[in-house]
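User: Please predict the structure of the protein below. I'd like the answer in structure-token form so I can feed it into my own downstream comparison script.

Assistant: Understood. Taking the following sequence of 242 residues as input:
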Amino acid sequence: MDDDVQVRGTLARLLGLLGYHVDEASSGLQALQLLECAPYDVVVLDIRMPGMDGVEVMRRARRICPDLAIIFLTGHATVESAVEAVRSHAVDYLLKPVSNRELAAAVARALQQRPKREQPQMPATSEQFIEVGGVTLDRKRQVVIISGGDEAAGFSVDLTGGEAALLACLMQRPGVAIPCRQLARDALGYGLNDEEASAIVRPHISRLRKKIEPDPNQPRLILTVRGKRYLFNSHAFLPSDA
């Protein structure tokens, strides 16, 4: 992330040539929006930005993705900025103009140092399909089929791995309000505190609702319960007088 379009474009092209998937952000807000939408491994972040500076972006980014590796980039090297980078647990600190070799080496180091996310293990006896209340989840294909008995049902949609894992966790315990911390651990493999877990789970739930709810603004399938909990409503498509 850099507000200088030329610097940003050059870095992105280099990393793309090295085989990395790269997205660009011209501001801190845009970078945080990208992080809300998809998982990232490394962020190359300019310390001095108009509006939200790099350190504040890093703090907010870590709430969304706690194990994100951050490389600080600056054209204004000072002792204070170097100390701030260390205190912020940045994995590297590069000075502009950065050479291709320096950037490539820094990203490679960042990926090596990044904590490996624990992958949740499915029980050996788990089924490929989970069916609850007119909703069928194919965990292998990561597809959900809504086949309930009203006019809002009758469609299928592809899910991401995280979305499918969260939905499976909720569908396996219909009617039970599950805390974000437990969802983050059991579905996504993150061991987080309550605030961090909420920051990770909430965007996934929002995107999941947009895909499977007839009206995401008035959810019927995935309900929010006080205390940062979510519940799968197995009666969503039953007649109101059932």
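That's the full token string. The chain has two domains: 5-113, 129-232.
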